[in-house]
Every structure is written in C-alpha cells, then in structure tokens.
Description:
This protein is an alpha/beta fold.
Amino acid sequence: MPVNSFAxxxxxxxPSLRHVPPADxxxxxxxxxxxxxxxxxxxxxxxxxxxxxxxxxxxxxxHTTVTRAYNxxxxxxxxxxxxxxxxxxxxPFAQPPDRAPIDLRVVDPFPSLGTDEILSAARxxxxxxxxxxxxxxxxxxxxDRQRAAACQWxxxxxxxxxxxxxxxxxxxxxxxxxxxxxxxxxxxxVACDPFTYSNFVQLARLAxxxxxxxxxxxxxxxxxxxxxxxxxxxxxxxxxxxxxANPTGVTMPEQRxxxxxxxxxxxxxxxxxxxxxxxxxxxxxxxxxxxxxxRTIHIAASMRxxxxxxxxxxxxxxxxxxxxxxxxxxxxxxxASALEAEIAAELVTSGYADAILRxxxxxxxxxxxxxxxxxxxxxxxxxxxxRLFRTLPLSPRTASMPGPGIEELIEHEAGVRVCxxxxxxxxxxxxxxxRVSIATQTPEVLSLALSRMLPIL
Length: 457
C-alpha cells in the first residue's frame, strides 16, 4: 500500500497505471506511457520527473520497476539523469540518429595542419647516427640539444633561462601533477580562478590539494582577493593562465600581472604559470616568471598546440622549485620520451614549430570571425584574435538546469557536444555558460553547430 496519500500532492507526472497488478512487463508499459507523454508535449523538455521511490509509492509498485522504466526511456534518449539533481525530460533529438554529433569539446587545434613538417622532422631524427640512444634510459633529464631547444621555445615569451633551469616532461598534465605533488604537496591549498582548466581541477582533487577560488574581473584575478585568500586559507601557491585563461579566454594585462607579482613576493607563494598561445602578443609583454623568477614554475606549453598527440612540454624553474619538480618527474614518469623530445627539439630548432603555430593562428582568427558574426558581436579588440575556444552565456531557463543535463540537452536537440561551466568549477560553484572549441571543425561546420545551439541556449 502507498505510504502517502497523493490526493492533493503535486507531481510533475502521474501515470495512469495506478493499482495495476504487477507483471513482468509492467516497466515497459510504464516506460511507454512516459515516452508517450513526452512525445505528445504533455511533459516539456527540462521537466523534473518524480523521484523513483516517490513514483513507486504513488503507483504502489516496487521501486525497481520504476528504475527499469526510467532506464528504458533513458537509453532511448527521452530522459536523462543528473547525480544529486534528479531525472529530467530531454529535448527531442533534432538530427537523424545515424549522424554523428559535432564535437566542440576537445581543443585539438587543426590537427591536419603541420603534419608534413612533423613527419619530416621525425624522419630526420630517425636518420641520425645517435637515434638508437633515443630508446634507452640515458639522459633522463633530456639531452643538451633538447634542453637548449626548450630554452629557445620559452624565449618566444621572453622567458630567458639556462638549459640547467629547463626540464622536459611528457605533456603539460605531467608538469601540473609534478607541481602539485612535488612542490605544493597534499593537504595544501592553491589559489586559482573560480573557473579554470578542468584537468588542473581534477588533478588537484587527485593530489588532495585544496583549490581556493579567487574573484576576478575582465583583467583576470584580483590582487586584493588573492592577498585575502593567502591570509585566510594559508594558500601555498597560485595557478594562473595569463595569456588566455581556460575556459574564460581572459588575457591578463601587464598592470594586473605586476600587481599579482607584488602579492606573490610579499606572501612568498609559488606561481604555477601555464602559458600556451599560438602566436606571442606583439609589443611589450612579460610573464610571471620574468617578474618572479625564483617563485614561478613556467610551463612553456605551446608545444602541445603544435602536435597535441606528441606528449612533450617544457618547464622552467629555479632552485628548490626546479629540483622538487624534476624529482617528482623522476618518481612519477621517470622521463619524457626521448624520441618525442628529439622530434620536438628538431621542430623548434628548424623553425617548423613556430611556422606551424603561425599557420594555425590564421585559421583560428578565421574561426573567431565566424563566431563573432553569428553572435552579432563586434570582433575582439585584438587585431588578430587567435583564441581556440570561446564561451556562450546561458539564458535564465537553461542556466537553472544542472550542467550535465544541459550538455545532454544540447547534444540531443542540436547534435552538438559542448562543455558546461561545471567542468571548470574550482569549488563546485555554478556557472551560466558553456565553452566551445572553435579549432576542431571547418568554418562551415562551426557555423552550423552554433546556429543549431543558439536557439536552445
């Protein structure tokens, strides 16, 4: 018997199967009634369905029957679930089921560009007399040539370093892991933007490093807010992406970097600086490393934009920061691939790497013009906007929905995969935007994807 009386109880959906004798196929009948209510428009997209136990009580049936019915409808794309939030009605899928969704999640910048140059560099490396040494444990910190190339690459952003201050890692994630585990330490706190690089958020959780979100504005993190965070939470370090913050796309001006550097020096905290860009900014530009060289781990991460599948990134640091960083590398990954490091060095010293990024920057600028045109906004104040991702604000209707649900709604209704703000939240805060990669599709496909999404948002 039902535990509650539902005579005057408001429920989003009250099936007609109440008091029906249990049967093996009852869950299918319940699912078919749910699907019919959705298809007829009785249940609108975004409607929160009754919790499974509540509906089971209303129908006087086992809750497992409701679970099977919900699963039946979910597998067919009519509803979706969000952990801790509930089950919701999905929007009807607007594309033929055999058409693959347009993926705007991963920032893989123009993977077909530069492949000939990369293959050419790889062949030259394999033809070298010393190629056989690239498959051994020798020179686990990188050869002199590789570290010299790392210095050359870092110098693109004005980071002047010696080979003894550079380390070669198997990708940017490896540098971030080494910084969190070997420099910051488990149980410590790191300040960051409220919404920041999603992999850094996940790595911090894995390393049991607490992230402290710090308020910012259109210029990036606020110095006073950082200073307050250091005092209140005993913050040991700060993670910054001054060239193009992910996901917001904010570029930090020189004045803001100078103000943050004063806080860093006064509070004696560590800076983890992720500096990735296709083309360095013209005119006066400085890194946090240039302002706080003894307190900064600089990640010369633009190599990942040359060939994302080639897992090589360069780090620059000094003193104990460098020693602890490299020690963590040796303990976690032993070393970067010598073969890939040598190919990266060949790309840098030959000028191919820089040429590839400049070509990709031209294509990125074209995609940004497409984005701005479709949204009816003025182009960026930058003469040459080469951002690889952009954000789109959500309407009050969609902003109130759970993040995973919005992603699923957009995929089902528009056939486009995107990343919601919840993936980038440092401390679980809500955010009313989605991030889209504009660098993985042609201008025509990007335009199609955006035109499908905008009416939904």
